[in-house]
């Protein structure tokens, strides 16, 4: 089962069964992020309609408007992340980040925790590192790194990395962790960065990237990175032992149907494809040999 959130076409459930694709549309426009929780429910982050939860664990599919069950700090949700406790971190467009404690079986008793020490505006991506730290990609203030604290949510400490600490750009759109625990950032205008503990390495178009505007970055099991860019199509790359980047670019000149990409999902051995979300051109099922487009 494949889920695809759209800007103006609702949420699509795509069943890939023997090359037959069936779409079921749920009318939630402006879907920004999707997440499966530990109970198997699908969380939908929307811009303007808060959070929707789709529960198909029973005979009939049920849809929960979380805004009607518990008070949320904002209805403009743009990112979601599941932590090792089963709680959900939510990034907003206009109210920073908050966490929903889901340990109680009764949704009405779920607890919403806000963290007022960080004033970030839009939080485009959230990443749980080593099942402990929470990293936030923000629109104007670079990266926030939150450290766990057993004394509670209000006592969490944090670090902020921005241009002052060496980032080339404070507008960070996406985060990814490699197998060595390094965090990679995609920026809007200055390529990608790798966090090295006390400094950043930086790669851009001069190093072979197809665009410096990076909407999404993912890593495959063989340590190949994939980047969805704004105007530059798809870039794959590896970094050798000398720190040199080796890239391959896929765009409209060699098979892609558009160069304006917004997100990706990386497959596995049973589904060896890159699924690409585009800007106004549907989704694409991609590998190095074929591209199949669904609109």
What report would you give on this structure?
The two termini are 17 Å apart. It is globular and about 50 Å long. It has a four-stranded antiparallel sheet, with no helix packed on it. 0% of the residues lie in helices and 50% in strands. With 295 residues, the protein is an all-beta fold. It is built from no helices and 27 strands.
Task: State the order of secondary-structure elements, H for helix, E for strand.
Answer: EEEEEEEEEEEEEEEEEEEEEEEEEEE
**Strand numbers in spatial order across the main sheet:** 4-5-6-7
The fraction of residues assigned to DSSP E strands is over 45%
Spatial extent as radius of gyration: 19 Å
Shape: globular
Average pLDDT figure: 87
Q: Number of helix segments?
A: 0
Structural class, by secondary structure, is: mainly beta
Q: Strand tally, please?
A: 27
Largest beta-sheet details:
4 strands, antiparallel
Helical amount: under 10%
The unreliable regions are none
In angstroms, what separates the terminal alpha carbons?
17 Å
Which terms summarize this structure?
single chain, 295 residues, mainly beta, four-stranded antiparallel beta sheet, globular
């Amino acid at each position: 089962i494949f889920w695809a959130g759209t800007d103006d076409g609702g949420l699509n459930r795509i069943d890939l069964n023997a090359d037959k694709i069936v779409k079921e549309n749920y009318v939630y426009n402006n879907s920004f992020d999707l997440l499966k929780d530990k109970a198997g429910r699908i969380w939908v982050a929307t811009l303007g309609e808060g959070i929707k939860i789709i529960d198909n664990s029973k005979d009939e599919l049920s849809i929960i408007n979380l805004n009607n069950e518990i008070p949320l700090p904002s209805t403009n949700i743009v990112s979601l992340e599941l932590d090792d406790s089963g709680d959900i971190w939510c990034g907003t467009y206009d109210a920073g980040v908050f966490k929903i404690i889901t340990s109680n079986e009764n949704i009405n008793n779920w607890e919403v925790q806000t963290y007022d020490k960080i004033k970030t505006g839009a939080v485009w991506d959230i990443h749980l590192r080593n099942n402990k730290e929470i990293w936030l990609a923000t629109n104007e203030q670079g990266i926030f790194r939150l450290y766990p604290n057993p004394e509670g949510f209000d006592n969490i400490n944090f670090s902020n990395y921005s241009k002052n600490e060496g980032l080339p750009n404070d507008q960070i759109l996406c985060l990814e962790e490699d197998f060595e625990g390094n965090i990679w950032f995609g920026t809007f205008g200055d390529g990608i960065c790798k966090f090295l503990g006390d400094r950043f390495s930086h790669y851009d178009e001069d190093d072979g990237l197809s665009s410096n505007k990076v909407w999404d970055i993912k890593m495959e099991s063989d340590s190949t990175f994939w980047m969805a860019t704004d105007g530059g199509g798809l870039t794959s790359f590896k970094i050798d032992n000398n720190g040199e980047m080796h890239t391959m670019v896929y765009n409209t000149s060699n098979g892609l149907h558009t160069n304006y990409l917004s997100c990706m999902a990386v497959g596995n051995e049973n589904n060896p494809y890159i699924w690409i979300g585009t800007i106004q051109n549907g989704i694409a099922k991609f590998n190095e040999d074929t591209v199949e487009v669904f609109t």
